[in-house]
Design a protein that fits this description.
The chain has about 325 residues and is α/β, with parallel strands linked by helices. It folds into 2 domains: about 110 residues, Rossmann fold; about 180 residues, Rossmann fold, CATH 3.40.50.720. About 30% of the residues lie in helices and about 15% in strands. The two termini are about 25 Å apart.
């Protein structure tokens, strides 16, 4: 493989609880568990292949990496790479679409069921002895809610949104979906496409599955949240900045909505002073919807396939038009 060097900048974000493919067939492999912003330039300067999950690769990094031929993103989103600068040098940037559909759609319902069953609070109450002190064989302090017969509203109807719709149908839910561009409808009923205002007015659970871009940043704001039923929940496993967090906090604290289940927030790792951390009726997981063992294993197999396709002269999953 000559002097090819593959540099993984944040391999620790993928984990080592499964066997990775043998990337050494493509050249020398350099693994960094974590790369801080002031370390990136030094680590990529001699790289032939840069592999990044969340480490930002700027135009300056790309210009200085004279041997660079390929940038692989260990994710579906690719906003962490200056794809224009890469294109200007003829360097393909390849992502991994559709590797975590099962994991993310499952986690949507983990969050939805936590909200409906009040499981977090009830488990905590058992541990603090409230069940032992109960005069009845069971107890609850807030209503436990069935998903059956309720309406699931899905904002964004790509592969993950469609998978969430199928699961919702399996729970016996009505399904509404908002898609800014035409999408094929599934073969089950009840299902309908709806405008976003109608979806927010009619849904009992709203799940976000749209990309983060200039159009969608902060799209879930006070004006949309005010349309929601007081009994409705919102779930976000997509990108934190889709939601205006101050507006969501106000909706939660005023109980104008019933709750929120979040796997993502505006800044990650979550800032200590993020007000949603202790918000009323809000359950938060640390951006893990994507990362089942099965999904991470599949991800790294697809990253391997992306590199092999490039080496073989027929790159795939190229996001910058090279």
């Amino acid at each position: 493989m000559g002097d090819r060097k593959l540099v993984f900048l944040d391999a620790g974000s993928i984990g080592d609880d499964f066997t990775w493919p043998d990337y050494s067939r493509f050249g020398e492999v350099v693994m960094h568990d974590l790369t801080l912003p002031d370390q990136t330039a030094e680590r990529v300067k001699d790289a032939t292949f840069i592999l990044t999950n969340k480490v930002f690769i700027s135009a300056k990094h790309i210009a200085a990496a004279k041997k660079l031929r390929f940038i692989g993103v260990l994710a579906t989103g690719f906003n962490q790479v200056d794809i224009g600068a890469a294109a200007a040098r003829g360097i393909p940037v390849c992502n991994v679409p559709d590797y975590s559909t099962n994991s993310v759609s499952q986690h949507v319902f983990t969050l939805a069921l936590l909200l409906c069953s009040r499981a977090v609070d009830l488990v905590a109450s058992v541990r603090t002895g409230q069940w032992s002190k109960s005069v009845h064989f069971c107890y609850w302090d807030k209503p436990i809610i069935d998903l059956y017969g309720k309406t699931m509203g899905i904002v964004g109807f790509g592969n993950i949104g469609a998978a969430v719709a199928r699961i919702a149908h399996g729970f016996g839910m009505n399904v509404l979906a908002y898609a800014p561009r035409p999408k094929p409808a599934p073969d089950f009923r009840p299902f309908a496409f709806a405008g976003i205002d109608e979806l927010f007015r009619s849904s009992d659970v709203i799940s976000l599955h749209c990309p983060l871009n200039a159009e969608t940043r902060g799209m879930i704001n006070a004006s949309l949240l005010r349309l929601m039923k007081k009994t409705a929940f919102i779930v976000n496993t997509a990108r934190g900045p889709l939601i205006n967090e101050e507006d969501l906090l106000e909706a939660l604290e005023s109980e104008s909505i019933a709750g929120a289940g979040l796997d993502v927030v505006s800044r990650e790792p979550m800032a200590d002073n993020n007000p949603l951390r202790f918000a009323k009726n809000c359950v938060i997981t640390p951006h893990v919807a994507w990362c089942s063992v099965e999904s991470r294993k599949f991800l790294m197999e697809l990253v391997y396939d992306n590199i092999k396709a490039y080496v073989d002269g027929a790159p795939v999953n190229v996001v910058n038009g090279i």
